[in-house]
Task: structure prediction
Amino acid sequence: MGQINPVVGDVAGNVKLIIRAAEQARDEFQADLIVFPELTLTGYPPEDLLLRPGLSKRVDKGLKKLIKKIKGIAVLVGHTSGIAREELYNAASLIADGECLGTYYKHHLPNYGVFDERRYFVAGKDACVIEYKGLKFGITICEDIWFSEPAAQALDASADIILNLNASPFRQGKWQLREDQVKQRALETGLPIIYVNQVGGQDELVFDGCSFALSSTGGKVARAPAWQQGLFPVSIHRNAENELILDGELAEKESEMAMIYEGLVSGLRDYVEKNHFQGVVIGLSGGIDSALTLALAVDALGSKRVSTVMMPSRYTAKISLDDAKEMAEILCVNHSVIAIDDLFEQFLSTLSDQFVGKTVDTTEENIQARVRGVILMAISNKTGAMVLSTGNKSEMAVGYSTLYGDMAGGFSPLKDVYKTLVYQLSNYRNTLSRVIPERIITRPPSAELADDQLDQDSLPPYDILDNLLELYISEDKCFEDMVASGIEADMVAKVIKMVDRNEYKRRQAPPGIRITRRAFGRDRRYPITSGYSVNSKIE
Result:
């Protein structure tokens, strides 16, 4: 099982990665066959790169190179087949002994959530069973294994075993859903199944690997670890009764909290590495969101590639300064303190004529956030380090953030992480080694943009807020349904209005890692201009 991390669009680099992995599998493991993930040559998802005929030409050249270069081992690789904008397939080919032994075209093209394959591909219809080394391999691709028909077709075509190539993104609980679905196919067909998934980050998506092999009765006989590139062997032989037997090693399953944390680390690392940033810079406030972001960044990149800046104002508590400094010292990152009061005063002085007769409100708070954003972006421009935005999903949902201020940045690791989960992940990280000072976790959260300010002054308690957001965002519950479930009507209406009217902010937010089944961005596409509201009822 070739659990690798391709780069989208880098066909030449992905071909080299395939060749290296194939040679390693042949030389170190004496493998006969290596199975790679879906669309191995292009990486997944290539999105509108698929509309460029030039990509198809590069894929064709890449396949020819694999046929020419790979010796002594067979490879099953995913690729595009056909011509962009005319008839393009999501395909997989078995290459061995200097030739292509057969090609399969994906039947089921997912077109929901983060997937939009019908925009690009034509669906295949036929089974593909290829005999190699005395075994008949039935080939399927990703979504096909979630339906009975492709596996049944392979059985009818006399397959001995099914090989399933995948690019299945991570989200909470997804690994169990995959295993349950594949087990169902094994039980239906009585065939062993080998499921190979890619690993690594691609923009908002992150892939956990967790490739596995099941026996003909659905028993798990091999499992690759999560979040690790590598080659994971599965041996196949027949017993005295001529039954096909699979053997391999079972990697230990990680806890759900470990899976989420490592997914965030993996997604952040690959976004920085694949986009060739020097490192990252973080506005460290002494609060829990920036603290968790710092922990993720150091775990992803190492302390030498991470720097922090504390930007206190007149409203910043001393404990925030102390806690930020302590955490920076624990993680050995370069830490600076740049006070913003003078800059803030200059803005107020410059705008004094425009502000005459107007009371102090959130405008002055937003100016502070934007001063900090300008400082961070200036450091980014000068050093080549990318700014990490530190906002969480709860804040993004209700607009508790400042455009061009704390939303400034190139990437937002916590964009799909609710505030309650921020606390859980922070406590989890401290079980590995203490990096987040306890006071950061236990003190009430505050933006510290005004005197005696707490988040709970303008928001419901986060446990209540996050429950409401989950109902409205992930489950698409309407106002009436939420009230009928026993939640106070005024609170429901307030939260829904906050979510709806802040869509314009989310459209301008940096990308972030998807870990839930309904993330902002690719998953949830709502109009900014909309007359659909809590009060818009047909009488």
Remarks:
- Residues 387 and 409 are 5 Å apart (CA to CA).
- The domain at 258-455 is CATH 3.40.50.620 (Rossmann fold).
- The first helix runs from residue 11 to 29.
- The mean pLDDT is 93.
